């Protein structure tokens, strides 16, 4: 998946964290406002502290065992549950070699999505569940505030970008002083030339129902993510 945002954690204070979300490409031109977005970020941070396995399939230890199970369920809602199988589809134990008894094919028990293989075994995933994720997210986040988007270039700067092809109206655009639309392709031609610190970003404050949900975070943490708050 293509990364959409870079997330920076400025501080974690009790049951709240303060941070910034940078827009890093034309595939995402605004910070999602639904509470599923910050919960997806927490799940992403949790999964990055995992003990290996296929991408998105780790089993992290957050340091607070009370919520490991809840994080695992949220992760499965977003990605589907990872099930190890034989080459002909029979369910395996987590070791990737022991066939579970009674012998059953995964497709006979679960509604399946994708399939792949890693260094342990073949595996499949159950279907994602965006509705269940949304319901759970609503009980995790008690407050979610997004600040104004800053570092948005103005139209006159966008008009000055060396054109790949001529477009009518550039001369008039060069006189505009309002912030440019981020879904206009020429805006990103300009932003691609700017350093990370000058990319559009917004501050966020997230409050959660239990401070343990913030265990995967730390002051100064930064990572890029493909999560947008919806099931993959």
SSE diagram, text form:
Blueprint: E1 5-13, E2 16-23, H1 36-47, H2 68-79, E3 82-85, H3 106-109, E4 112-117, E5 122-126, H4 130-140, E6 141-146, H5 155-159, H6 170-173, H7 185-191, E7 201-208, E8 222-225
Antiparallel strand pairs: 1-2, 1-8, 2-7, 3-5, 4-5, 6-7
Helix pairs in contact: 1-2
Strand order of the largest sheet: 6-7-2-1-8
Largest sheet descriptor = 5 strands, antiparallel
| Helicity range | 10-25%
The overall strand count is 8
Average pLDDT reading: 90
Name the overall outline: globular
Order of helices and strands: EEHHEHEEHEHHHEE
Give the radius of gyration. Answer: 21 Å
Can you describe this structure?
- By secondary structure, the protein is an alpha+beta fold.
- 24% of the residues lie in helices and 22% in strands.
- The protein has seven helices and eight strands; from the N terminus they run E-E-H-H-E-H-E-E-H-E-H-H-H-E-E.
- It has helices spanning 36-47, 68-79, 106-109, 130-140, 155-159, 170-173, 185-191, and strands at residues 5-13, 16-23, 82-85, 112-117, 122-126, 141-146, 201-208, 222-225.
- The strands form two sheets. It has a five-stranded antiparallel β-sheet. A three-stranded antiparallel β-sheet has the order 3-5-4, with no helix packed on it.
């Amino acid at each position: 998946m293509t990364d959409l945002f870079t997330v920076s954690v400025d501080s974690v204070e009790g049951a709240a964290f303060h941070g910034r979300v940078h827009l890093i490409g034309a595939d995402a031109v605004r910070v999602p406002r639904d509470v599923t977005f910050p919960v997806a970020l927490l799940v992403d941070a949790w999964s990055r502290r995992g003990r290996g396995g296929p991408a998105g399939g780790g089993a992290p230890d957050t340091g607070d065992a009370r919520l490991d199970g809840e994080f695992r369920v949220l992760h499965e809602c977003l990605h589907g549950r990872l099930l190890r199988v034989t080459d002909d589809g029979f369910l395996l134990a987590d070791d990737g070699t022991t066939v579970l008894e009674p012998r059953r094919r995964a497709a006979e028990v679960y509604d399946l999505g994708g399939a792949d293989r890693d260094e342990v075994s073949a595996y499949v995933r159950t279907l994602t569940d965006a509705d269940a994720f949304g319901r759970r997210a609503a009980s995790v986040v008690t407050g979610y505030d997004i600040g104004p988007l800053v570092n948005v270039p103005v139209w006159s700067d966008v008009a000055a970008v060396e054109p790949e092809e001529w477009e009518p109206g550039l001369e008039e655009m060069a006189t505009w002083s309002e912030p440019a639309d981020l879904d206009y392709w020429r805006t990103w031609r300009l932003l691609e030339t700017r350093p990370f610190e000058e990319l559009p970003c917004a501050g966020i404050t997230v409050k959660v129902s239990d401070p343990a949900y913030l265990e995967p975070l730390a002051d100064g943490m930064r990572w890029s993510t493909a999560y947008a708050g919806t099931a993959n």
